[in-house]
Every structure is written in C-alpha cells, then in structure tokens.
Design brief:
Elements lengths: L4 H6 L7 E4 L3 E5 L9 E5 L11 H8 L2 H10 L6 E5 L15 E6 L19 H17 L1
Antiparallel strand pairs: 1-2, 2-3, 3-5, 4-5
Length: 143
C-alpha cells in the first residue's frame, strides 16, 4: 500500500533499525521502545490485521517468533521475560493498520510496561461459557 508506514519500511523508503529480515518478514525496533529491545515483526505482504491472514501467511510469520524472541532474550542478560502482543482493530489498540507483532522484553515488574486484565470469572456460569464456546466452534466448522 502506498501510504502504509510499514510498507514504506519494507521498501526501505523509511529508515528502520532492522534486527531480522528475510523474503517474507521484517523485524525492526519499535520507535517507542516500551522497554529496551521492543521489536516489531511484520509480514512484508500488506495485511491489515490477523483477520486477513491465511494459514500459509500465519505459518510464515509466526514461525519466525521463537528465533527472534530467543535472540532478544540472549541479547541482554537483564531480560527476565518477554511479552508478545498482537492488536487487531482500533478497539484493540491497533494504531498502524499493517499487521504487526510486538515483542517486548521484560526486565522486571517496574520496567515501565504493564498489561492489566480484569478477572471476570465470577460473571460467567459454566453454561454461559459453554454457549460462548459453542458459538466459536460452530464458526470453526464453517471456516
């Protein structure tokens, strides 16, 4: 896409600090650096989000994750863990509409990055969970 910032990075029209690249994907440091080493992994093919992946593209992109994650962890002995995040849609905090996966090194609980989840387990009965699961499973059979 002509105006996509990540497509421009793929075409080397915009500089980036590349950590990995092959014919199908590119990984580069996020300018925001939520923590040192924060890396983005993108497919070179423009797809807006995970909903546009087919199984082949998913296999290509996601098969690179362990290699890049292990390289990030090995690059700094202070890294204790790693968050892998993929936001899909504006409501899910996606701000660049070219699919990308965040690899965010974690140095400790006070490293400046957090993810907060609210526990809603008390709000659902087993029957309600079964209804939700059945709806999802029905769509798996269609697709």
């Amino acid at each position: 896409m002509d105006n996509c910032i990540f497509c421009k990075i793929v075409r080397n029209e915009i500089p980036s600090t590349v950590v990995y690249e092959d014919d199908q994907v590119k990984a580069f440091l996020d300018l925001t650096q939520a923590t040192p080493g924060h890396t983005l992994l993108i497919p070179k093919k423009h797809v807006a989000d995970i909903f546009e992946y087919d199984s082949e593209l998913a296999a290509t992109v996601f098969s690179r994750l362990p290699k890049i994650a292990n390289a990030i962890k090995a690059s700094d002995p202070a890294i204790k863990g790693l968050n892998i995040c993929n936001n899909n849609g504006e409501v899910a905090y996606q701000s660049v509409f070219h699919s990308h996966i965040h690899l965010i090194p974690r140095y400790g609980a006070q490293d400046g990055f957090s993810m907060q989840f609210v526990d809603h387990s008390a709000d659902y009965t087993p029957a309600q969970l079964k209804t939700i699961a059945d709806r999802i499973q029905a769509q798996l059979e269609v697709n």
